Amino acid sequence: MDENADQKIKSFLHYIEELGLGPYYIARARSSVPSYDQLTARARDACALARPEPSARLAGVSGLQPSPSLSKQPRAPTIPIPSGPSLFDEHIENDSLERIREDIGDCTRCKLHKARTNIVFGVGNQKAELVFVGEGPGHDEDAQGEPFVGRAGRLLTQMIEAMGLRREDVYICNVVKCRPPENRLPERDEISTCSPFLVRQLAVIQPKVICCLGACAAQTLLETNQGISRFRGEWFDYRGAKLLATYHPAYLLRNPNAKGEVWKDLQKIMSVLGLKARKK
Ligand code: URA
Q1: Strand partners for 132
Q2: Which among 133, 146, 174, 179 is the best mutation to test ligand 1's pocket, defined by most ligand atoms within 8 Å of the CB?
Q3: Are 188 and 45 in contact (CB under 8 A)?
Q4: Which listed residue, 57, 121, 175, 227, has the most CB atoms within 10 A of its CB?
């Protein structure tokens, strides 16, 4: 299959993943071309740190629980991950965003470093009550070294302002800090290499609310491979913060009809943070 067609299929699978749909089945018994369901499985694996689904993991956590509807959903297949101690599970005394950035250094830990221009660490208020987490830098972010500065970023800025905030009031970062080539999904090894830095950023900032933009951020922090539409708009506990996942602004650019749903999600966040919508 030529790269263009492969990329188109991957984008389509990304799109249906955002909707929580799939897998799609097409009989291709006699073909050597990978089937849709194989590609779907690849896409799912790519952005899933397969661990217990949120309902399982959160059941023992005090505070917020996922809504009952989530626990009634059929389980998505999970892939075992190697267990063992992680450096990043330990609390790092006197950690700071500066120290995390220093630790990242001129990173070559995963293959994403090969094509990147800039590491996109994160931007905003270091004491923010609200943190937005995206997937990974795109072309504009890679060029400028700042998250969410392209088209999707401008929409995110509008969303933040509609909530009665300014971009500099919140903190914005991504699961992976280097741009995946051709804006493909970050792959599993890339996520597992880079996400510990996100975990540390969140531990330092200690926001009241984390808003995951899209499936990748939500699946990474909630350690699930369920489709985002299964739990979008619901509250979860993430290490003492309230976490809510909504659709990615890039998805909204392709599907403006979903803006109403996202606005409802943002209003939930505003109500927790005591924010009033900006007057038009
Ligand atoms: N999409 C993301 O997920 N993050 C960015 O920084 C830009 C686009």
Answers
A1: 172, 211
A2: 174
A3: yes
A4: 175
Residues whose CB is less than 8 angstroms from the CB of residue 161 and which lie 6 or more positions away in sequence, other chains included: 167, 278
CB within 8 Å of 264: residues ≥ 6 apart: 233
Which atom from ligand 1 is nearest to the alpha carbon of 146?
6
Give the nearest ligand 1 atom to 120 CA: 6
d(CA 119, CA 128): 21
Which atom of ligand 1 sits closest to the CA of residue 174? 4
Q: pLDDT digit string (tens) for 148-196?
A: 999 999 999 999 999 999 999 999 999 999 999 999 999 999 999 999 9
Nearest-CA residue for atom 7 of ligand 1: 148
Task: Report how far residue 157's alpha carbon sits from residue 171's, in angstroms, rounded to the nearest whole number.
Answer: 12
At 3 the pLDDT is: 61
Task: Report whether residue 266 contacts ligand 1, using a CB cutoff of 6 Å.
Answer: no
> Residue 215: CA atoms inside 13 Å, Cβ hemisphere, count?
26
Ligand 1: centre distance to CA 1 (Å): 28
Which structural domains are found in the chain, ordered by start?
A: 1-46 (no CATH), 51-74+93-273 (3.40.470.10)
Higher pLDDT, 103 or 41: 103
Average pLDDT over residues 31-56: 43
Do 171 and 203 meet the contact criterion of CB atoms below 8 Å apart?
Answer: no
